[in-house]
């Protein structure tokens, strides 16, 4: 068994696609129209184009528990997911130049460095560098 796709709920798929590709540097893998203006929209890492896909899943406006969960995580500052980076300080400085907002600057915690950003689509995302 292996992970092929993980989902992140986003409030606006097009806005999410622009943020994740233009700012975070992912590339679009699949973009298939579905019902009600929704899409099967996935992105992948440039470094691993055949790796795990991130589904930019429409946050369902008609399913209150999902909206409540996403909003509660965001308001508590809890990241929805995390992405690994090789050099967190460099990535932080690059993203700051692109006007990405961080709720936590790079911070060392044991054998990792973490930072938390706002994806502009309803989620906090944690970036992590393992510094062994």
Automatic annotation (TrEMBL):
In which domain of life is the source organism classified? Bacteria
- Any one Pfam family here would be Glyoxalase
InterPro entries, per database record:
Glyas_Bleomycin-R_OHBP_Dase, Glyas_Fos-R_dOase_dom, VOC_core
Q: Tell me where in this chain the VOC domain is found.
A: 2-130
Q: Which SUPFAM superfamilies match?
A: Glyoxalase/Bleomycin resistance protein/Dihydroxybiphenyl dioxygenase
Q: What is this protein called?
A: VOC domain-containing protein
